[in-house]
Amino acid sequence: MKSIIMVRHAKSDWSNLYLPDIERTLNERGLRDAKKMGQLLLARNVKIDLIIASTAKRAAQTAMLIAKELGLDTKQIQWSEELYHAPPSIIEQHIETIDVTHNHVMIVCHNPGITHFVNSLQGHITDNIPTCGMAAFAIEMDKGWEDFHLVNKRLMFYDFPKNHL
Hints:
Layout: E1 2-8, H1 28-43, E2 50-54, H2 57-69, E3 77-80, H3 88-96, E4 104-109, H4 113-122, E5 134-139, E6 153-159
Parallel strand pairs: 1-4, 2-3, 2-4
Antiparallel strand pairs: 1-5, 5-6
Helix pairs in contact: 1-2, 3-4
């Protein structure tokens, strides 16, 4: 059995409207939410052995803050330029190339691709994954990730920061 957690980056800072989109960092709420969601994953005893994240600054910050809360080394994060505003097909391609040694994976990326991808796994879950929202799935496979598209996925939880105000 494997698992995957899909995470939308936390809330980004829009104070500089001239900053290229990929360069936007997290605002105060985003920094707070990423830390909080990492703590909630830790409290749930969630295990992660690999994080694959978009190289956009807000996604990278989200991945690093969650990794820190989970006690992960930054070496457990792989960066992918292709995940920046990736459609579901690119997200799935990344998953299907994950090394067989990784059983519990987190993907940190962007809307609208993440919402469409999550909804494609087990039917409609949400119209919009909010910032720092996450959907975790149990994956019924024992071998490599290359068969991800063929196997059953079961939603374990869907959560986001505003659930914990």
